[in-house]
Amino acid sequence: MTGDINGKPQSAPRFVSARDVAELAGVSRSAVSRAFTPGASVAPDTREKIMTAAARLGYQVNDLARGLLANRSRIVGLVATKPEVGFRAHLTAALAAVLIRRGSVPVLINAGETAEETEAAQRTLFGHRAEAVIVLSGSPPSSFIELARSNGLPLVAIGREAPEIDRVQTDNAGAARRIAAAFVAAGHRRLAFAGSQSGTPAIVERERAFVDEAARLGIAAAVARGPDTDYAGGLLAAERLFAEEERPTAVFAVNDLVAFALIDHLKSRLGLGVPADVAVVGFDDLPEAAWLGYRLTTFRQDPLEMAERAVALLEDRAADPLAAPVSLRIAARLMIRDTFRPLDDGAPLP
What we know:
Elements: E1 2-3, E2 9-10, H1 18-25, H2 29-35, H3 44-57, H4 63-69, E3 75-80, H5 86-101, E4 105-110, H6 115-127, E5 132-135, H7 142-150, E6 155-158, E7 166-170, H8 172-185, E8 191-196, H9 201-216, E9 222-226, H10 231-241, E10 250-253, H11 256-269, E11 279-284, E12 297-300, H12 303-319, E13 327-330, E14 333-335
Parallel strand pairs: 3-4, 3-5, 5-6, 6-7, 7-13, 8-9, 8-10, 10-11, 11-12
Antiparallel strand pairs: 1-2, 12-14
């Protein structure tokens, strides 16, 4: 017992139970259970009394208890490193929405950056008997993938190369090659890539494809990497790129956060115009990319499309566990704003 603000005894708070509903409706506990079980047989008038009582009491079915009885948790683990940063935050939100819509319980697992954090994350995920796992972009350790596979869980990776499992990826290389060619077609001869030392598969793929395409077109692209793919890392990459006497005139940033930092460095610290002095293109199309202070030309990754594709792969895998791994690669659309306009102004790039 607890006391209220007047000192009167008060019962400890608790959830409304099926027994409460049964008592109010004047039926058995098993009748309530059948009424909330799809396909179960309940007389229409009995069902109506139960539903009326449930609505009056605010009763909700205990899905956790049902899952334990059926040996199904309905939990889908979303594993990510730094899930709060940039595109991953929007992808996590989209995945949660899609999973909730299908009746799953999304659980965000921050893989952490130390061995202790990773071990704790693994205990949480697998100790709660997740039914499936989605590994997001970034760099969660491969041990999550290995544990999920050894436990027979449907598993999908987003934004990382994992040939042995189902995966959804953006066509990073295609986008990087397209923008390098577009820069050159627009007359730029001093190209650069603002990247990151974090070395995730998507980052490596974008950098390599951009540099290789520039070289194929006869240009040696400069590369500078900050410690991470965030705003602070973007500022360091920008400082390194523009510390040289021969400054770039066109820069492809590994993501929008780095592009924002680059633009701020150019305008606020160096007094340069974008795109008058330096053209800038990002990657992700975060909501801030359309803000008046940036109006960033960038490649769009659609978080909802990626989430829907990933969840569909989970469902296919659950239906056919022995099928060959599926790899989906989604094209990134160039969103043309003010920081760079290709000569064809929106037509498909080469």
